[in-house]
Design brief:
Length: 233
Amino acid sequence: MLSVKNINVYYGAVHAVRDVSLEVNAGEIVTIIGANGAGKSTILKTLVGLLRSRTGDISLDGKSIVTLSPAEIVRQGIALVPEGRRVFPRLSVEDNLLLGAYARRDKEVGRDINRIYEMFPRLSERKKQNAGTLSGGEQQMLATGRGMMSRPRLLLLDEPSMGLAPLLVHQIFETILDINEQGTTILLVEQNARMALSIADRGYVLETGAMVLFGDAEELIDNDEVRCAYLGE
């Protein structure tokens, strides 16, 4: 589905992502784990066109998307739920969801909003409330729902558990599993390596901008280097 080959991304003179390659197959949950500042978010921003790679290629279903604008990439079926939620604080919950469907021209947007409300009943209770007044967990629900409103085939999730209480973290990861079971492929960037690997099919380990390990999630959980560096064992 998604193929990334030898991308190199810079912030000015800083080489943030180094010759990174990865694959995401349809129906999978794939995770990228690594320390803060390793380049995980940079990869996701590059996949949706917010940053550009100097070399390499990114293809979706065998077709390169490296020259497409972010809006065009959304129309191709990729959506990003960004780190820090990035909701529009002065707009209502419902208006935030509607913005997630800005690229759509079909007549089923209302039906999909109701689907999001079924997935996140708390948002239904607060649909007329300004997004900036929601709790952190509620804002994460809203950001995820907004991403789903574009009907993505591939959903990119950037640190969905950041700053949340343990109970909410479990709820968010259960939601990720539900979204995947309903047919959406997921690429998950997450510092909570144990939780990420517990729901993923495969994983990649990123250190200082370079992929250093990859494999089945169960294999990575049992890897001594991963257990020591990321699982606290």
